[in-house]
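#onboarding

Welcome to the new folks! Below is a worked example of what a typical request in this channel looks like: someone posts a single protein sequence, and someone else replies with the predicted structure as tokens. Don't worry about understanding the tokens yet, we'll cover that in week two.

Example request:
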Amino acid sequence: MKKFINLAFLIFILNLSCGNPCGTCPKNGVPLSFIILLSSSAPYGANNSSCKFTTHCIEKENISDDKINKDLCIFNGADYRYELCSNNNTIGKCKIEGDNSTFNKIYNNSISRNDAINDCNSNLKGIWVEI
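Example response:
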């Protein structure tokens, strides 16, 4: 609901400054593409995001510009959320430290514990953490 209110407010500003809500504005107007970009960014106060697949969930802490991660998540058919992964039915996680952020791959119980640990250590070069 909060996102809808923000989007409605931004569209209202667009109509006031532009007079042409179809995407092209005269000088000093706000283009509709900019409004859509703002509305697709992380909600105020969001610090985390996750991408839930059938066998695992990938979470990112300390998000800043998460548009690429969101697009990749949706493109791969996963469920994108502005919250951390659930620990229900999980066997462990792989922690991967990046620049200014941390990624965690949470494995659910549809994969064996040994396969998950091997994926974390060998493929992702991460640190296995028991949950």
